[in-house]
Amino acid sequence: MNERHRAREALVQALYQWHYNPQDPRELEMEFLDAGYLEGAERAYFQHLLRKAVERHEEIDALIAPAIMPRRLSELTGVEQAILRAGVGELLEREDVPYRVVINEGVELAKSFGTDQGYRFVNAVLDRIARERRAQGDGGSAGDG
């Protein structure tokens, strides 16, 4: 597993925790660092995406809401919300990362942390948002993993 994937795993876990216990992302970073959750992770990537996902959570949720219709965000599991927030945050903040990489990572995270078929839902939602937010040519570039 590469450092960036590990950072994304930790990001999903941190956003899950933040969802149920909102706190300053810097405090959350320190908790994750002290507990060893960032071992093998690209720490700066984790920090940047966590801070931005928390800072922009209303904007991120507003992008997710129409993509999950007829469901509501409050109807999603905490894990689904965390994975989608992480993925949409990465789409918004890291245009250098091809959207297909973001989608594939979201799917892998959903397979690891979500329900049996949750990865299909995550794939569909991230794909829809990515196509709306990014130029069509972005997905064909080489990924960073």
TrEMBL record:
GO MF terms listed in the record are: RNA binding
Q: Which Pfam families match?
A: NusB
* Biological-process GO terms, alphabetical: DNA-templated transcription termination; transcription antitermination
Which keywords label this protein?
Answer: RNA-binding, Transcription, Transcription antitermination, Transcription regulation
All residue ranges annotated as the NusB/RsmB/TIM44 domain in the record: 5-131
UniProt xrefs under InterPro entries: NusB-like_sf, NusB_fam, NusB_RsmB_TIM44
- Keyword RNA-binding set for record: yes
Q: Which GO terms describe its cellular component?
A: cytosol
- What superkingdom does the record give? Bacteria
Q: Does the keyword RNA-binding apply?
A: yes
Which PANTHER family does the UniProt entry name for this protein? ANTITERMINATION NUSB DOMAIN-CONTAINING PROTEIN (PTHR11078:SF3), N UTILIZATION SUBSTANCE PROTEIN B-RELATED (PTHR11078)
In UniProt terms, what function does this protein have? Involved in transcription antitermination. Required for transcription of ribosomal RNA (rRNA) genes. Binds specifically to the boxA antiterminator sequence of the ribosomal RNA (rrn) operons.
The similarity annotation says:
Belongs to the NusB family.
* Protein's name according to its UniProt entry: Transcription antitermination protein NusB
What is the native source organism of this protein?
Thiohalorhabdus denitrificans
By which gene is this protein encoded?
nusB
